[in-house]
Design brief:
Elements (H helix, E strand, L loop, with lengths): L1 H6 L14 H5 L4 E4 L17 E4 L7 H6 L25
């Protein structure tokens, strides 16, 4: 994902679970990609209001973090309650 964003001319910061004051970096992100493998690691306080949150892991982030983001993280087969669009981009009825 980092390489894809770099190829699209995005400025990318990569952090890991041991990054000191990781919230400092996550609160600045317009797009936050969570792939840390620890359920609940990303909290609402770590997400910039209006940011896009992408959960690429198999663990869910906390509901509070998802709803603080402008477009909640969606996993395959889920439907967004806000937009009526499923994870594949299809509109629900």
């Amino acid at each position: 994902m980092a390489m894809m964003l770099l190829n699209a001319s995005a400025t990318v910061t990569v952090c890991h679970s041991k990054t000191v004051d990781i919230g400092h970096y996550t609160r600045e992100a317009d797009i936050l990609v969570a792939a840390i493998g620890k359920p609940g690691f990303v909290t609402a306080e770590m997400v910039k209001p209006g940011a896009t949150l992408i959960d690429v892991g198999i663990n869910r982030v906390t509901d509070a973090a998802e709803w603080r983001a402008s477009f909640p993280a969606m996993r395959s087969g889920q439907r967004s309650l806000r937009s009526g669009v499923d994870a594949g981009g299809r509109h629900s009825s």
